[in-house]
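Appendix B. Chain record.
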Amino acid sequence: MSPTEPDVEGSGGLITALTPQKRATDRYSLFIDGTFVLGLGVDVVIEFGLSPGMRIDPELLLSITTREEIAGATNAALHLLAYRARASGELQTRLRQKGFSPEAIEAAIDKLASWNYLDDKAFAQSWVEQQQTHRPRSRRAMVQDLRSRGIEPDTISETLDAADIDEVQDAIRASARKWESWRALPEDVRLRRLSGFLARRGYGYDIVRQVHNHFTTDEVDE
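Structure tokens predicted for this chain:
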């Protein structure tokens, strides 16, 4: 059962009260035949023209409940987006974790996309730019991360190709401070630490070797 969905099977009856909630003035508590059924957003109340004295059959109540769940999923997604941009697949995962039904999630994602709040291609481009600027990682690591966020493989490939990634230079930038901080250590220890640091960012041995050669050559030139 979703966060907003009551057990409506076989329900229906007369709306005996529709009262504003104390902690959320834009939400109402729906009572049918004297029993609380569910909370509703003001938009849902207006959409269905709900008012005390109105009789509701089970089919209509199910429609109201479905609409309220979609609104809940949409609001939850907007709350997540308020913290940072997210890919659609990542949002779907978070909404599933919150207990929303697949139908409500799909409707919420479609609505956000129609409002231009979701653009996986733009998200991927921005994310790759931020990674290259602030936390360089290998192309392989970025592919895995973008996949985990639900970005389609074609979008990932197009984005990374357009970024014109130079893994060696990125790895040099990422490890420059580390290498300098290890200056007093024996060469073999520095190399092991460099290998471990770059491996955690997805770089393979060939990249590590080139980065190591870059630093040691610079030191010899000094």
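Further analysis of this model is presented in Appendix C.
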